[in-house]
Amino acid sequence: MCQEAEAAARNGAKIIILSDRDAGKTRVPVSSLMALGAVHHHLIRCFMRTQVALIVETGEAREVHHFCCLLGYGADAICPYLVMEILGKLREQGLLDPPLTDGQIFDNMISACSRGIAKVMAKMGISTLQSYKGAQIFEAVGLGVDVVERCFDGTPSRIGGANFAILAEEALQRHWQAFADREGDNRLVSNPGFYQWRDGGEKHINDPINIANLQEAARSKSEHAYAKFVESAENISQHCTLRGQLELRWAAQAIDIAEVESAASIVKRFATGAMSLGSISRETHETLARAMNRIGAKSNSGEGGEELRRLLDDEVPTESIRSAAYRLTEPVKLGCHSQCCAERDQCPLSLDL
Prior knowledge:
With 353 residues, the protein is mostly helical. The protein has helices spanning 2-10, 32-45, 64-72, 81-92, 102-123, 129-132, 145-151, 164-179, 208-220, 223-240, 263-266, 282-295, 331-334, 338-343; strands at residues 15-19, 53-57, 77-79, 142-143, 161-162, 271-274, 298-300.
């Protein structure tokens, strides 16, 4: 596929379409993201990438994250044909309320995806799609080095993981589920539980057992009930998080407690993230500042600083001070007052030029 794309580019092609539309009973589709990444990086290595546009026609892309990944790895345009066909079928079956034309449905889908992509870009501080396209601002979790080097060159993958053989086996399993001749209702679609917990599906930290144990512990205020919650939380964490895979390795001999740094000293290095007043409520903003001041750590006011009344807390006990130690301010855009900048430990300025 990479060689074909290179040959097409050298022969003067300006647009290359990577499509899985011909997938069928005798044809197993390759992951559209892997195919795109491999071709994108191959053309870069051949110094041909800027001469052609890559269009991805795929049935895999169906949500904002999928579109963001494809754009982030070099797609110039995306045609999610399966999503559009499903929306058309829903309209034909009268399942959309109110009734809409195909054009309205497709326009709404495109508009929703565009807003979702813009939201993701905004969270990363990126203003234009041109800056996001091909930027690869991702980190792979669970992909082997061979896959990353071939398809996602330059993407961090700290723990390694699945190689091409494993990914091929998973593709064959999905193909078998879709096209294999077997007894039973082939129209019944299994729900893997990606978005909501399903018995036997994807593991979720907030599964029914964990939530039930938490509610019982909160209502009964029983140490036994809380111990059950801790046990279930630790168990589900092993399935859902990287830290859940870690195990403590105990030293053969205990060290002197005098060599252990005190908790009061450790928390001085703790700091909250910068969250502007308005992005979270006033009560939450002040509570975070008060809590960090109480333990001797530092909070960050976020852009815009704080209300002047919170700066007058300096004469009250430390546990009641509501002002942040760090203030990230934009004095021109947000009109921060000078006292806000002068009162605290650090006050970095954010200037939009």
